[in-house]
Design a protein that fits this description.
Blueprint: E1 3-8, H1 17-26, E2 34-38, H2 41-49, E3 54-57
Antiparallel strand pairs: 1-2, 1-3
Helix pairs in contact: 1-2
């Protein structure tokens, strides 16, 4: 499977609890932090849920 790097670009302050927990599940705690994950359907769903707070790093 391929991997994807995800970077948090916006704050989770004033976001719904489910979006905050999704960021935590992805391993993102601070703005500017980058994590790497295998691309699975569950990870794709989490990325889609918080796509306005993150970006995909090449």
């Amino acid at each position: 499977m391929s991997k994807v790097k995800i970077k948090q670009i916006r704050s989770k302050i004033k976001r719904p609890v489910d979006q905050k927990r999704t960021l935590e599940a992805l391993g993102l705690k601070k703005i500017g932090q980058v994590v790497e994950h295998e691309i699975t359907p569950s990870v794709e769903g989490m990325i889609n849920k918080v796509k306005h707070l993150i970006t995909i790093v090449e």
